[in-house]
Write a structure and sequence with these properties.
Elements: E1 4-5, E2 7-10, H1 27-40, E3 44-47, H2 64-77, E4 82-86, H3 95-104, E5 108-112, E6 116-118, E7 121-122, E8 126-127, E9 132-134, H4 138-151, E10 154-159, H5 162-174, E11 182-187, H6 200-206, E12 212-217, H7 223-233, E13 236-239, H8 256-269, E14 273-274, H9 277-284
Helix pairs in contact: 1-2, 1-8, 2-3, 7-8
Length: 289
């Protein structure tokens, strides 16, 4: 356990509607929110790219020029911060994520480390959306990891269930994932792991040896006790408008900075401090296998 924790801000998310929620979309908005998050203690900015045409800001974009405009704006505003780019896409075509990785060269990239039936229901026994498979085959994962290795990008393995966590050790064994692993336990997706603090010791035990880990906790007020437990157990911490709109007291956050301020306070209540940009870079500087 280190007394320093990397603080990540998930600035915007995949499909959250900017007409209903205060999520940033344009390069200027993303840079403004990155500044707020950085000033509050976050050193890593996890970013998704959105369509920039009027009225389409809730839709994802894999246009490398859009990706470049957003990352360039964030880097100009907060040059000390590290970029963590999403690569999540449904289907076998990963040309969009690969083009964005090549164009932006982030320090880290989130990689979904296994498949998930992505489900949710509404009252009355109806699906919230048509049931879909978020498919992340080993072949798809291997191609993403190869590109990250060539570009010297650190992969962050997002794990939606315990079986995916256990798969990471096998990825090490066959040589496709560098050691040690960077692992995110994704909690709170309706058809994935529930947001429960008592699961954390099991997940940590099943993760590969020496893994750097954090929990991505999706939900409302219930996310904050889990963040506290993550801090107590030595993990790194992430929040942002992608994960929750709610502060520990149940009120809605006006922006990402407010969420990061609350997360840093949670960390300090556990006796730890946020890592500086230099310390963050040192913590993620894993040797290749």
């Amino acid at each position: 356990m280190t007394d320093k924790a990397i603080i990540t801000c998930a600035l915007t998310g995949v499909l959250t509607d900017p007409a209903q929620h205060p999520v940033p979309v344009t390069p200027a908005e993303m840079a403004r929110e990155a500044r707020r998050a950085f000033d509050a203690g976050a050193t890593v900015m996890h970013i998704h790219f959105r369509r920039q045409e009027p009225g389409l800001g809730r839709m994802p974009s894999w246009d490398p020029e859009v990706a470049a405009a957003i990352t360039d704006a964030i880097r100009a505003e907060v040059p000390e911060a590290l970029i963590n780019m999403t690569t999540g896409v449904v289907g076998d075509d990963i040309s969009g994520p690969l083009a964005c990785l090549e164009r932006t060269r982030p320090e880290l990239a989130a990689m979904n480390a296994g498949s998930l039936n992505y489900l949710r229901t509404r009252s009355g026994g109806r699906w919230a959306w048509p049931p879909m498979l978020f498919d992340n085959t080993v072949e798809k994962i291997e191609r993403l990891l190869a590109a990250m290795r060539d570009l010297k990008v650190t992969p962050e393995c997002e794990c939606f269930d315990l079986g995916i966590v256990r798969s990471l050790s096998m990825y090490h064994e066959v040589g496709i994932l560098p050691r040690p692993a960077d692992v995110s336990f994704v909690m709170g997706v309706a058809s994935g792991m529930p947001a429960r603090a008592d699961l954390l010791p099991i997940l940590i035990e099943e993760a590969p040896d020496a893994a750097r880990w954090q929990a991505i906790v999706i939900g409302r007020e219930e996310v904050w006790p889990i963040h506290r437990r993550v801090a107590e157990l030595g993990g790194h911490l992430r929040t942002g408008l992608e994960d929750t709109f709610y502060l520990p007291d149940g009120s809605r956050a006006a922006h990402n900075g407010a969420l990061i301020e609350a997360l840093v306070q949670t960390l300090r209540d556990a006796g730890r401090e946020p890592a500086s940009p230099e310390e963050t870079r040192a913590l993620i500087a894993h040797p290749a296998s």
